[in-house]
Amino acid sequence: MVAWAVYTVQGKRLVSTFPWLVITTASISAGILCLLPFAIGELWLQGMPHLRVDGLIQLLYLGGASSALGYGLWNYGLRFLDASEAAPYINLIPVVGLILSIIVLQEPLSLIQAGGGALTLFGVWLSNMGQAPSADSVHQQL
After folding, report:
1. Which of 18-32, 84-98, 125-139 has the highest mean pLDDT?
2. Is the pTM of this model over 0.90?
3. Dihedral sign, Cα of residue 34, residue 95, residue 100, residue 90
4. What is the SS3 assignment for 79?
């Protein structure tokens, strides 16, 4: 949570200077550089992985849709919201994932999952109580 808070606050500062796409590309590139030594070590110890077509599609989805698109949309949204306003919405990721797994994969919904999702939604709602949008933020969005 601390790392995400720093990422969000720094993202809010940077989005006023640089385009959201540049910020997203830079942050993903920095992450790749940090993970590269571990990837090289794993290749050295275990060799090249044998990916089938479905595994490659899954890898591209996780890297492109889940990560790059998710971070990009987050950075884009920081143009319109303060970091403190945007931060509670990160908690909706598991709820959206749960809803998509029910709709797309036809997964059953358990009582614990429903309760956790409801508590998360309540927490996000509670964190936004009394935060009416300012005239400046509405004007910027238009």
Report:
1. 18-32
2. no
3. negative
4. coil
Residues 85, 136: contact at Cβ < 8 Å?
Answer: no
Give whole-number Cα distances, 39 to 36, 45, 99, in Å. Answer: 5, 10, 33
- Cβ-count burial of 8 within 10 angstroms (0-12 exposed, 13-18 middle, 19+ buried)? buried
Question: How many angstroms separate the CA atoms of 6 and 17, rounded?
Answer: 17
Nearest-10 crossing angle of helices 20-46, 2-15: 140
Q: Return the residue matching tokens 């995400």.
A: 4
The answer to whether residues 131 and 85 touch, using CB atoms and an 8 Å cutoff, is: yes
Q: Cα 65 vs. chain centroid, distance in angstroms?
A: 10
Sequence-ordered list of residues with C-beta below 8 angstroms from that of 55, at least 6 positions apart, any chain: none
Confidence at 42, pLDDT banded by 50, 70, 90:
very high
Q: How far is CA 84 from the centre of its chain?
A: 16
Q: How far apart are CA 68 and CA 83, in angstroms?
A: 19
Cα within 13 Å of Cα(53), Cβ side: 0
